[in-house]
Design a protein that fits this description.
The protein has 526 residues and is mostly helical. The protein contains 24 helices and 5 strands. It has a 5-stranded mixed β-sheet with strand order 3-2-1-4-5, with helices on one face.
Length: 526
């Protein structure tokens, strides 16, 4: 019998997991499509399947289109008096609304689907839906209510022997206790989740839980241990990212883990405060480069950079073939390890095949690098280290200003060809307010006719983000690496920050050549 619930539940929750080596108890989409064609509710299931495909594209528009398809399925299931199908469609709609940030709408749809799953005796659907409702309550700040739903779903996952679902649920419970300030309890649940994630090969779940553990350890002022955990988490993230074949999914996935890098950078800078001679500020700068340069390939592809030049077509075809084989092998491995009673011999055989394919793929990549170092630099961008930035990018007349905006604190690194200084700036929200005020002043047709208003807005933002550079920039070239809203800020129109005893009402552009880039490594690659 075609288990529609397992399909849509797993399909929605692992939109990226087939590329990220996550386990999931689900049949392959191809099998789903084939089965749907012969199912009595095939038309509705076809709409579900189309919605799932759109959801997995990951864009705002595709998710909105997914809702439309799920609503078609919902209507058809209701007309057919198929309450189980109705539950699945309702949960699909709720999941998309949750992703879009419309938590109240999401809760409404999840709440409608829950009694239908129970009436159909679908324990798996019930467990996942309870977990979904718990997540919504948690994100709405109602932690005790979230715990109530998580506590209902946990025993169901255990009865179902769904270790992946249990790991996710335990991680969520840990998050509730962390929000409630019960850090020891949070660590207890996170530790259980981490063990299960590792046992089932859920690398993405492992990375998330390590990040959460690092957060708790930082809050308990155990900074060295927190550093170990977040570095392990980021190592997994960067490894997983290289395994995603689709550029769109790769970029989408990396966007979901930017908070890991923000945490890592902030932790390093906090360590720098207590150990200013240990090089933590340098590591933080390099972490900032890593978080930017990982998306560099997408930026260069969009600008039509010719990254295929000089590569043998045979090597490219071999690379594509190996990637496809690796994807297929990984999907099969996920099916095996996620089954209630996985066959150890089959798991070992598929693991062996995967290792062999990985070895072949690594050999292929080595050949590609030797044929075209330019290609390797673009497809697997290696961010520059501080010494490389100083040697390859900077000279005695150029200063690098690199920004990292954070929820609690922001940072600025000022790098010259011979040294580095780092500064703590106001939190992201404060900088965003000043930046929007400045942008409004220079773009609003009414406000820009009032020079004093523009000058005030320019000076306010300049004092926030440029003050630390005032005494050391002279008339040197400024290489600026913005972050967040600063990407949209015309630095040339900012005034030079005030220096005690000096009149510095000039605009930045009058004393500096200004260059802005997405990352310092860009110059080393182009």
């Amino acid at each position: 019998m075609f288990d529609r619930a397992q399909w849509i539940l797993a399909g929605m929750s692992i939109a990226l997991s087939l590329q990220l080596s996550q386990p999931a108890a689900a049949m392959p989409v191809g099998q789903v499509e084939q089965t749907a064609q012969t199912n009595s509710s095939g038309v509705a299931e076809a709409a579900l399947n189309e919605g799932l495909k759109l959801y997995r594209q990951g864009t705002l528009e595709s998710k909105k289109s997914a809702i439309a398809q799920f609503e078609i399925a919902l209507k058809l299931f209701r007309e057919a008096a198929d309450s189980h199908g109705e539950a699945i469609a309702l949960m699909g709609i709720g999941k998309v609304y949750s992703d879009l940030g419309e938590k109240l709408k999401a809760r409404e749809y999840f709440s409608q689907s829950l009694p239908l799953f129970r009436a159909a005796d679908d324990r798996s659907g019930e467990a996942v839906n309870l977990n979904n409702i718990g997540q919504v309550y948690s994100e709405l700040g109602e932690q005790l209510k979230a715990l109530e739903y998580y506590s209902q779903s946990l025993p169901l996952f255990r009865v179902l022997d769904d270790a992946g679902g249990e790991a996710s649920n335990l991680n969520n419970i840990g998050g509730v206790y962390s929000e409630l300030g019960e850090q020891l309890k949070a660590l207890e649940y996170y530790s259980q989740s981490l063990s299960l994630s590792r046992a089932v090969g859920d690398r993405s779940g492992e990375a998330l839980t390590l990040y959460n553990i690092a957060s708790v350890k930082r809050d308990r002022n155990n900074l060295p241990e927190a550093l170990k955990d977040i570095e392990s988490s980021i190592a997994i993230v960067e490894n997983l990212r290289t395994k995603i074949a689709s550029p769109e999914l790769r970029s989408s996935y990396f966007a979901t883990v930017q908070n890991y890098y923000e945490f890592y950078i902030d932790l390093l800078m906090q360590l720098h405060k207590t150990n200013p001679k240990s090089g933590y500020d340098t590591k933080a700068l390099e972490a900032s480069e890593r978080s930017r340069a990982r998306s560099l390939l997408e930026l260069l592809q969009e600008s039509n950079a010719n990254i295929r030049e000089g590569i043998s077509p045979d090597l490219l075809q071999q690379e594509k073939s190996l990637q496809q084989q690796l994807d297929a092998t990984e999907k099969r491995r996920i099916e095996l390890v996620s089954s209630p009673n996985p066959n150890p011999d089959l798991v070992e055989a598929i693991d062996k095949k995967r290792r062999e394919l990985l070895q072949q793929y690594q050999q292929n990549q080595t050949q590609i690098r030797s044929t075209s170092p330019r290609y390797a630099a673009l497809t697997q961008p290696q961010p520059l280290t501080l010494p490389e930035i100083q040697k390859q990018i900077l000279d005695e007349n150029t200063i690098l200003l690199q920004y990292s905006l954070g929820k609690d604190r922001s940072y600025l690194w000022v790098v010259t060809s011979t040294g580095i200084n780092s500064y703590e700036l106001p939190k992201q929200a404060d900088i965003e307010t000043a930046a929007r005020d400045f942008l409004d002043a220079i773009t609003n047709p009414i406000l820009r006719d009032f020079p004093k208003r523009v000058a005030e807005a320019s000076s306010n933002l300049s004092q926030l983000i440029l003050q630390p550079t005032a005494a050391q920039s002279g008339q040197k070239r400024l290489l600026i690496i913005p972050d967040g809203i600063l990407h949209y800020t015309p630095f040339a129109a900012l005034t030079i920050p005030q220096i005690a005893g000096q009149n510095t009402n000039n605009f930045l552009i009058l004393q500096h050549e200004i260059i802005t880039l997405p990352s310092a490594s860009t110059l080393g690659i182009l």
